[in-house]
Write a structure and sequence with these properties.
The protein has 288 residues and is mainly α. 20% of the residues are buried. The protein folds into 2 domains: 2-48, no CATH class; 66-258, no CATH class. The protein is elongated and about 105 Å long. The protein has helices at residues 2-27, 30-48, 80-103, 106-109, 113-118, 121-131, 140-159, 165-181, 193-219, 228-238, 240-249, 256-259; strands at residues 263-272, 278-287. It starts with a helix and ends with a strand. Strands 1-2 form a two-stranded antiparallel ribbon.
Length: 288
């Protein structure tokens, strides 16, 4: 009982002391209060250093979609998690393509079916890598159409996930050269100069053109020539990996116009001009 009484007494005394201190603060005139506030701000700034610069990108609830940002060749907003998923799809697609090509006639791919059947896989890979690269005799549709398009698909896999032009070109080179030309395809044939040059370089150029085209489609809510089905088909052709996976994991490029509403507001007012007259004022605000 005594302990409870002492505790209540201490709480009462603290409350009175706090109230008295508050009264002292309330009695300070406004000018003195402002001077004390300025001095406190100065001390805080001096101890903590300059105010930190707030990056608006970090305040966003999720990673920004590159299609919400102004066009740039160097701005980088990478989404590594989604790029990893894209890479897994490209690896699976590459292995599937390899199986399909292996089923085609020999005159379509120039792969030596007899050697493939007689020589062990590891030995065949070693011989092909050591004897290359060389100029191949593949059909023009492979070297100058399908390979640049494949490179563009690699390029867009990174570009649409926030990577800038340079990183996307590097990713395209890595997939086309390391994974494909000196990877799975080297088990079947000698690496080709055309593939080493045309696929990454053509993929870079065609891929950036595809990126411009997809930006246009996205900014028109996936409409092309007023048609949404046509817009979806064109977007898929420009960016097959991201558009395909977008059906399962969500597509951040959808709903562009909802995130970029343009509002025009106007306000008319009449204010005294200080000379006994009045001045009409019209304020117009454009919000993006």
């Amino acid at each position: 009982m005594k302990r409870i009484f002492v505790t209540l007494l201490l709480v009462t005394l603290l409350g009175l002391a706090q109230g008295h201190a508050q009264n002292i603060v309330d009695d300070i005139d406004d000018e003195t209060r402002d001077e004390l506030a300025d001095e406190q701000d100065f001390e805080t700034d001096s101890m903590a250093g300059p105010d930190p610069v707030i990056d608006p990108i970090k305040l966003m609830p999720k990673k920004p979609c590159i299609y919400d940002m102004p066009y740039s060749i160097s701005a980088n907003y990478p989404n590594y998690r989604r790029l990893a998923a894209n890479t897994a799809v490209l690896i699976g697609g590459g292995l599937t393509t390899l199986i399909i090509l292996d089923l085609l006639p020999e005159n379509a791919t120039n792969w030596n079916k007899k050697e493939e059947a007689e020589v062990p896989m590891t030995e065949r890979y070693y011989n092909n890598v050591m004897n290359g690269p060389h100029w191949d005799g593949d059909d023009a549709i492979f070297n100058y159409v399908l390979h640049p398009y494949a490179g563009a698909a690699y390029y867009m896999s990174a570009r649409s996930q926030g990577f800038n032009m340079w990183y996307s070109a590097l990713y395209c080179f890595a997939v086309s050269t390391i994974f494909w030309e000196y990877g799975v395809e080297a088990f079947m044939e000698i690496p080709s100069w055309q593939d080493l040059i045309i696929t990454p370089l053509g993929g870079w150029l065609v891929g950036e053109a595809f990126y411009h085209a997809k930006r246009y489609i996205v900014e028109h809510d996936y409409r092309l020539l007023g048609s949404k089905p046509l817009g979806y088909v064109a977007a898929f052709l420009c960016d097959p990996v991201n558009e395909f996976l977008g059906y399962f994991r969500g597509n951040d490029a959808h709903g562009w116009s909802k995130r970029h509403k343009v509002e025009l507001n106007s306000q008319f007012s009449i204010t005294p001009d200080g000379m006994g007259g009045q001045t009409p004022t019209l304020a117009v605000t454009l919000t993006f």
